[in-house]
Amino acid sequence: MANETTQQMADLAERFCQLVESFDEKAVEPWLVDMSVLLPQLEEAVSALGHNQDMSVYESSTDYDERFELFTQLYKALGERDGYNYEYDGLEGQRLSGSLADDITDIYFDLKRGLKLLDNNPQLAARDWQHSYEFHWRHHLIDAERQLNPAASTLSH
To answer: At 84, phi and psi to the nearest 5?
Structure first.
């Protein structure tokens, strides 16, 4: 049985995954609003799980065809809302760009993997969310938040 913190994370992960799975290209704007509300809650919940030092290198276990299919669906529907620019890279002096579809897709598959672990081993699910957040989807979440809520870019993460 999951403790309260893990259960809260699981509930938000489930809401995020359901939101992605129910994506309707005819209702993009309300979907983006819902996503902009959910992302900060998700960040707070995964942070409440604490820092994980028990796992080694992050490895994605996602089927790349499935990942590409979701990315493509989101990318096409988001259109001009998808792309955004990062800050200048201090080493290269070049502007780099990101993709909201990529951010959402990567977060989705990392959360989904934890949800699959939840029933059999809630502690492992929590550790997986912590670890994948720290090594992978934290940056996607921050970038997505900044894209969906420009005011979030002034927050220090």
So the answer is: -150, 160
Q: Measuring CA to CA, how many Å separate 88 from each of 30, 50, 83, 97?
A: 31, 31, 15, 10
Residue 125 lies in a domain: yes
pLDDT digits (tens, 9 = 90+) for 49-104: 987 665 544 455 667 899 999 999 999 999 988 988 765 544 555 556 789 999 99
Host domain of residue 144: 4-49+65-74+98-154
pTM of the model: 0.85
Q: What is the CATH number of the domain that holds 11?
A: 1.20.120.1550
Separation of alpha carbons 126 and 119, rounded Å: 11
Q: Count how many domains the chain has.
A: 1
Asked if residues 53 and 67 have their Cβ atoms less than 8 Å apart, the reply is: no
**Is the residue at 12 inside a domain?**
yes
What does the angle CA 81 – CA 111 – CA 63 come to, to the nearest 5 degrees? 85
